[in-house]
Amino acid sequence: MIFQRQKDAFGFSLRSELFFISEPEAQTYVKGQIWAENFVPRAHWEARLPLGIDNYFHYDGIGVIGHHTHWDRCFDIVDCIKEVKKVQDYHMDGNGWWDVGYNFLIGEDGRIYEGRGFHIQEAEKYQQNL
């Protein structure tokens, strides 16, 4: 689904098309299907299935928190997919988290890789109010 959150004259939320939102247990993309040139959904980078979802939330605001990794550099989709998979493996196998800890990851190739997507709180902010 694609939404943009806006407020009407009375302060109520309106939705119009703009943002890609992945919802729990929803098939948002089929591998090989073209969605957007610079957006790489989980199915395309062959993400592991999450072990569960314990921090689903609804947040009307829009905000970005940046966090960098110290993995290998990547400048094309093949190498960046390898790096995204490394991050997911580290978070799931090393930290014991149920999935990759980030909502989205940005590769040095300029693409946005879907992590947890929207409406799933990132792992490092779990149980904190946004």
TrEMBL record:
One of its GO terms (molecular function) is N-acetylmuramoyl-L-alanine amidase activity. Residues 40-129 form the Peptidoglycan recognition protein family domain. SUPFAM superfamilies: N-acetylmuramoyl-L-alanine amidase-like (SSF55846). InterPro entries: Amidase/PGRP_sf, Amidase_domain, PGRP, PGRP_domain_met/bac. GO terms for biological process: peptidoglycan catabolic process. PANTHER family: PEPTIDOGLYCAN RECOGNITION PROTEIN, PEPTIDOGLYCAN-RECOGNITION PROTEIN LC-RELATED. Belongs to the N-acetylmuramoyl-L-alanine amidase 2 family. This is Peptidoglycan recognition protein family domain-containing protein.
